[in-house]
Amino acid sequence: MTRQNWKQKTAKAQIWTFDFLFASGVLVFLLLIFIISWNDLSIRWNSSEKYRELKIAALYAANSLLTTLGDPPSWEYLNLTTEIDKLHAIGLVNSRNMLDNEKLIALKTYQNSSYDNIKATLGLAKYEMNIMITDKYANTTHYEFGMNITKKKQKAVIERLAILNDSLSIVKLTVWVE
Amino acid sequence: MRAQGSAEFLIVLSCVVIVVLILTMIYSGQVTNFFQSKNVLSAKKTAYEVTSIINNVYLVGNGTQYTIWIDSNNGTITISGNNVVVEKNKVKVYASLLTKNINTTFITTGYKKIKNNNGLIEID
Question: Which of A52, A102, B6, B110 is 20 to 30 A (C-alpha) from B68?
Fold first, then answer.
């Protein structure tokens, strides 16, 4: 074997190994980018899906509060501590958008003892909630029920107009994940 | 020098095989997650569809009626308290209802009439 032949043979093998190493590196890099992007996308998708669920649950709860009497319709006379199994649904009005003082007082009365059961009945078991009823300028609070949102959380806020004692009021329902 | 070339090649090949194996293991986890997500999505779709219909029938009031088609691809649908529970391929999804006053705890396949009868939600 001449010196030139020997050089060519060894050089070939080295080049092939280097090419292989380079191609493998590129392949690994691309695979890593794919896996990282996939993870990032699934995290973002999950987060927006959870927020959508939160908003839908809040909308339904607000509709239940302002368009139905509840089930039974006179649920305000139940003792919600001992007769919670008789409460099938909650509404705060005696006709559409006409707030009922007795239902509001009942809700406030059981604020501490039945908070979890009440929010579960409104379809908000997974979340925390606050219901605030103010005058139409949001200056005076007539009733408040539920937790106070303390930190900056992802929340859904639904504001609806209703009549309380012949005056226009704002019913504000805030729902968030603790 | 030839022998050296083979050794380099073997080292590089082993490294690549190890890296590819690790990536395959991670990726197979992703694939499992993907199929699991597909099941969750499908169960969620059913749960939210049934929940939305029951909630709207309840909200609109007495006499409201809606008919839906439930097939075996929807999974097993039960009502527990004020939750619709859909179970599909070992995945369980819950969706909350606005009322607990429902006349059944199990929704079978076929056309189902969902009706509000004075606050009682009848499914048959």
Answer: A52
Mean pLDDT of A62-71: 94
Question: DSSP class of residue B91?
Answer: E
Nearest beta carbon to residue B99 from set A61, A67, A88: A88
Residues of A in contact with B96 (CB under 8 A): 57, 120, 123-126
The C-alpha atoms of residue A2 and residue B17 are separated, in whole angstroms, by: 37
Which residues, in sequence order, are CB contacts of A89 under 8 Å at separation 6+? A64, A68, A70, A71, A75, A121, B58, B98, B99, B100, B101, B119
CA distance A97 to A119: 20
Confidence bin at B20 (pLDDT 50/70/90): confident
Q: What is the ipTM of this complex?
A: 0.75
Beta strands in A19-100 (DSSP E): 70-71, 89-90, 93-95, 98-99
Please compute the mean of the pLDDT values over residues A42-57 and round it to a whole number.
Answer: 88
User: Coil, strand, or helix at residue B62?
Assistant: coil
SS3 A45: helix
Give the three-class secondary structure for A129.
Answer: strand
Q: Give the closest of B9, B20, B58 to A17, CB-based.
A: B9
More confident residue, A34 or A115: A115
On whether the pTM is more than 0.95, the answer is: no
Q: How far are the Cα atoms of A2, B4, B9, B13 from residue A5, in angstroms, in the given order?
A: 5, 17, 21, 26
Confidence of residue B3 (pLDDT cuts 50, 70, 90): low
- Within 8 A of B2 by CB-CB distance, chain A residues are 9-10, 13
Is the pLDDT at B98 greater than 80? The verdict is: yes
Match 């056309």 to its residue by tokens.
B111
Mean pLDDT of chain A: 87
